[in-house]
Amino acid sequence: GKFKDAGIKENFIILDINGSRVNSQDDVEKIYDSIMKSSDPDKVMFVTGIYPTGKKVYYAVPLSD
To answer: Is the pLDDT reported for residue 7 higher than 90?
Structure first.
């Protein structure tokens, strides 16, 4: 879906989204719901994470269509 479209590849470990620590799929869903309910017209997830190689990567995942 949108993560793949943003370039996020398999085995990527999400550390935080929009500055909020992520420990589970539930955390991702709660952050997503919060972004979608906001009045900001530019809905985006700024994702920080690492790959198993240890490479730290940052992605911007647009949620607005």
So the answer is: yes
